[in-house]
Design goal:
This protein has about 325 residues and is an all-alpha fold. The chain is built from 17 helices and no strands. It starts with 10 loop residues before the first helix and ends with a helix. Belongs to the UPF0718 family.
Length: about 325
């Protein structure tokens, strides 16, 4: 009589058989526990949410998300169109072969995207995936939110008596975008920039692949947008307004203060000109720094760039962009304003 020894069931087999997973946290159980905690503590929660600081936080958070979301969706749609319908050979023909020349061409191309910084991040990611040199894609990433027709028109409306602000914003923003592209081409390393991930949609038609790409990017980029909006709302709620009044009296401090404020507030580039115009206690040069820095680096942008290109990239690219944007804004302001 021959005896056979059956192999021990694998971990996957035990899961298929319905065996409970020992030591693993069930997300649905965690959600139930959280809901029960909210119900039990609804009195303190209600009092906390009715506090002025909490109401200010929710107002800023909602405003940032609602301002940015339509343009994020626009960028995701453009990204999906590029990924699915545009052949890779198109970019080889459209951009010059030399990266040094491709950077300003890509920077000027940013003028045709009617969106804000949230739209430019997924589009720049799609350009990198399609083989565009990162230096050119990064120049587009920085220029598109600042020199497109909608933003320049909004700036002209916000500063009706200072038309030079429109030209100054265009010149400063385009110069920073091209300079950062050239700087990345010169000093950037391939291992600093993580190629943006793109899920494979093999076996799908172009229509199905397009909508699958849209769903993927909305969930991915939208999560980082929410994180950035939460950070911006938190800082906006705790920064005293008296600090702004004190900073406006010093020319150097006023420029740095509005540059930092642009990072913290994370205002959409279609709306930032009206905020800058309202800061009338500051000089035009300081307000120019606010308009140049904001569309290029703020909290939500840093979070989205981290999610798209990796944390190592964002930690190097964001500080360099901030410093260069402040310096160029100061020089352009001194000459044109």
């Amino acid at each position: 009589m021959t005896t056979t020894t059956e192999p021990a069931p694998t971990e996957a087999g035990r899961r298929d058989a319905g065996e409970p997973r020992g030591g693993r946290f069930d997300s649905s159980l965690g959600l139930i526990m959280l809901l029960l905690l909210v119900v039990v503590a609804q009195g303190p929660v209600r009092r906390a949410l009715s506090a002025p600081v909490a109401q200010s936080w929710m107002t800023v958070f909602t405003a940032v998300v609602l301002q940015a979301l339509p343009f994020l969706v626009l960028g995701v749609l453009l990204s999906a169109l590029i990924a699915v319908f545009v052949p890779p050979s198109f970019f080889a023909r459209a951009l010059p072969r030399r990266p040094a020349v491709a950077v300003p061409v890509a920077g000027m191309a940013g003028a045709v995207l009617p969106g804000c910084e949230c739209a430019s991040v997924p589009v720049a990611g799609a350009l990198v995936r399609r083989g565009v040199t990162p230096a050119a894609a990064l120049a587009f990433l920085l220029s598109a939110p600042a020199i497109n027709p909608i933003v320049l028109t909004a700036t002209a409306v916000a500063f009706p008596r200072q038309p030079q602000m429109v030209f100054a914003r265009f010149v400063a923003s385009l110069f920073v975008a091209c300079a950062m592209g050239w700087l990345w081409q010169r000093l950037g390393r391939a291992d600093w920039l993580r190629p943006p991930a793109r899920p494979a949609f093999h076996g799908h038609g172009k229509g199905a692949a397009f909508w699958a790409s849209v769903r993927h990017d909305v969930m991915h980029a939208g999560g980082f947008l929410v994180v950035g909006a939460m950070a911006a709302a938190t800082l906006k709620a705790v920064v005293p307004a008296s600090w702004l009044r004190g900073a406006a009296d010093d020319p150097v401090v006023s420029i740095l203060a509005l540059a930092v404020l642009a990072v913290l507030l994370s205002i959409c580039s279609e709306a930032d000109a009206f905020v800058a115009a309202s800061l009338s206690q500051f000089s035009l040069t300081a307000r120019l720094a606010f308009l140049v820095v904001g569309p290029m680096i703020d909290l939500k942008l840093f979070a989205m760039q981290t999610g798209t290109f990796g944390r190592g990239f964002a930690l190097r690219f964001a500080p360099a962009t901030f410093v260069l944007a402040v310096l160029v804004s100061t020089l352009v302001g001194a000459v044109l304003l």
